Amino acid sequence: MRKVRWTLGGAALALTLTAACASASREQDTPPPANLRALDARDVVAGAIVVDFKDGTTKAEFDAWEADWGVDLELNSVESADEALTVAVGVDDVDGVLERIRQHPAVEAAEPMMEVRASFTPNDPHFAQQWNLRMIDMPKAWERNRGKGVVVAVLDTGIAYEDHGDFKQAPDLQGVKFVKGFDFVNDDAHANDDHGHGTHVAGTIAQATNNGEGVAGVAFEATLMPVKVLNHFGGGNTADIADAIRFAADKGANVINLSLGGGAYSQVMASAVEYARKKGVTVVAAAGNGGRATVEFPAAYPGAVAVSAVGPDGVLAPYSSYGKELDIAAPGGDKRRGDQGASSRTPSTRATSRASSTRPTRAPAWPRRTSRRWRRCSTRPAPRDRTRWSRPSTRARRSLRTRRGASSTATACSTPRRRSRRCAAAAWRSGRRCTGRWRCWRSCC
Questions:
Q1: Which of 246, 277, 343, 386 could form a disulfide with 335 if both were Cys (CB 3.0 to 4.6 A apart)?
Q2: Any idea what DSSP says for residue 286?
Q3: DSSP conformation class of 372
Q4: 181: part of which helix (H) or strand (E)?
């Protein structure tokens, strides 16, 4: 089977993918009178109505009218006499009574009495900085649903969900409900995170909320299923991901989250997405981080919900891909501009990225699927590309060692290159690991 390397998507997807961004300055037409059958039962006070008469209407007047309506109207408070705001309780046929009352010329408004609650505000210390949750109006959504009973499978680098061996649970995931997952990279039942990205995604979805620590999650009463399909470098292949999609669908997941993308069209992957959809599973995937008018796979497969990223201003993030397959946009931010919220420099990430500091300090086991070329390159030095970099000055090397610590012997490049597969393989074979994102071949090999 042809295998394609998959890479991480930059924007973490949330369980609830809705955005309520109505403009406050836009004038709206007056809505029609409220109908009891059109309202949610949780928003209505049973058997109660509110009738607002024209100013100056006396109690004696509406007492005479209420006999025809079959209700007992009373002033709402001692301050309501001038406005003639009245209420009635114990009404059997609310819609029928309101229809008769609205026909009277002295009535300005008549409607069911509705219940209003204070919006849920979690006590997490960094909640005020989470613009992403305000953008999708989560405080109001939490009044209706917090994800209880929903199982979300996170197909990623794993989750820091347990204390197992050298792995430790992320502090803000304590108390979160988990179901059994699987590690398709190492073929075992412990889908622990040795990268950090999967824990970030899981925290955005359902990290512990209202616990006085870190930040809030979107659906914090949901249950998470950790499924590891990407290795400690953030790479994976279509065989593992397709296998994991079917696994999650068979094990009871209601939502499958895929914050990853790359590669070309794969019939194996497309069939897996179709299989999950036929079982009633919602498959959500990142549109991609290419910043181009092409939705990447797996988001582009039929049946998948493709999600792009927007910043605090509601404008498409410069890195986010888009195209005809796009279904919806969600807050993603852009750390290059210093956006706060869902970007990887925000409190929501800081809380969950603590898992990266709890993963083992030793080099993790090399993935079981390693090409012969990668293994062979570790036995010989990488070629020196004289056209891309040159040896820095003595002062530059000393300055670099001072910043990185005396134990560091890495050599800087005048034109640094992103760490290559060959460089990573050689570093692993030699027992040394690159400590940063930007290194030249020479620093590792």
A1: 343
A2: E
A3: H
A4: none
Backbone angles phi, psi at 323, to 5 degrees: 165, -175
**Most confident range, picked from 74-78, 272-276, 307-311, 439-443:** 272-276
pLDDT at 37: 61
Q: What is the pTM assigned to this prediction?
A: 0.60
To which H or E segment does residue 397 belong?
helix 394-404
Alpha helices in 77-122 (DSSP H): 94-102
Strand (E) or helix (H) holding 176: none
| Alpha-carbon distance values, 78 to 48, 84, 108, 162 (Å) | 19, 10, 20, 59
- The model's confidence at residue 399, banded by pLDDT at 50, 70 and 90, is low
The catalytic residues are 156, 197, 343
Confidence of residue 390 (pLDDT cuts 50, 70, 90): very low
Beta bridge partners of 255: 152, 282
Distance CA 349, CA 243 (A): 28
Structure tokens at 441: 């071949």
pLDDT at 42: 67
195: nearest Cα among 424, 439, 387? 424
pLDDT digits (tens, 9 = 90+) for 27-42: 445 555 556 566 666 6
CB 199 within 8 A of CB 352: yes
- For residues 443 and 427, give the distance between their C-alpha atoms in angstroms, rounded to a whole number: 9
Angle value at C-alpha 130, between 124 and 135, nearest 5 degrees: 130
State whether residue 272 is helix, strand or coil: helix
In this structure, the number of other CB atoms found within 10 A of the CB of residue 254 comes to 20
